[in-house]
Amino acid sequence: MIDETLSEVPPPVRHWPAADLAGVDFDPVLTELMREGPVNRIELPNGEGWAWLLTRYDDVRMVTNDPRFSREAVMDHPVTRLAPHFIPTHGAVGILDPPDHTRLRRAVAPAFTAKGVERLRERSGALLGELVDELLQDGPPADLTSAVLSPFPIAVICELMGVPAADRYRMHTWTQLILSSSHGKQVSERAKEQMGAYFRDLIGLRADSTAEDVTSLLGAAAGRGEVTPEEATGLAVLLQIGGEAVTDNSGQLFYLLLLRPDLVEQLRDEPVVRPKAIDELLRYIPHRNAVGLSRIATADVEIRGVRIRAGDPVYVSYLAANRDPDVFPDPETIDVSRTPNPHLSFGFGPHYCPGAQLARLESELLVDTLLDRVPGLRLAVPADQVPFKKGALIRGPEALPVTW
Hints:
single chain; alpha+beta; six-stranded mixed sheet; three-stranded antiparallel sheet; 16 helices; 8% strand; globular
């Protein structure tokens, strides 16, 4: 018997070009999709076919935590996608489902616990202090991105991963090529292969290590047979790439702050407000273009009266969920006193970002250090002249010209 409450007429397929956007402008296509309804169908610039898109907070949390929606099954489906290339390596944690996903994350869990991340605080603070020393010594004007916001997260993630300082530039170059759609599929795939080969060798050298950096943990786990070399390599690549996202998020965060001198003054005068302010800015920032990785429905599922059939690809939008007015009253307003603030900027469910605590630590250090040590920090050009990245999957300023 057919459930008469289900809609058998699917919504139209909306082409989503995911054009480059200026500043922190919210994607107008996503805005329209949110207005049209909670369940939509989209076609992205690459891949094949169409996919469902869910934009409401509760639906996003449900799908990302429901075993009926599989990441692993994506490997067998030519899903429509934003990037010309498929970023995760086969067997990587980003596309595995539990229990394999759980097993692989367990191998590196000690590096990402509160204790493991806190272990980096002193060293990270010292690295940041050195960068700010150089910034002040060179004097204004300066590009905050190249002087601080880019080298700091690179140094921290390489420290966590166990990548030698001499190889940081290579890691940064590979990451930028992997996260760009403007160089073409072959260039991005080649960069991913090169980074994978690097980590495969590094992990192999650390099979007997007792250190707590990620590659040592992976090397030891592979040596014990708990993960395969391919799984260890794929996880290392994704963690390294994800670690650099702080550069773009921090670029948008400071771009927003410097547009609001009253907020900057409040944070200088009331340091206790800073953690909540960072959370609110993370909620508000449109940190990526379009959507990330999809999932495949493994069974027929009803969502808000729409039947999603087994085999259908499904995307969720964390950006849209973070603007859901049922959860975040007046979502277009930056409210640093917002409580609670259960934003989904780091995802939800089994694939919740393992580096979330590290990203928060870096954001706190950046805000504390730059606001306290660089009084008068402000944009050196009009806001509309700040150049933002083109053809990038993760949004952020190419440069952030500042003075003080």
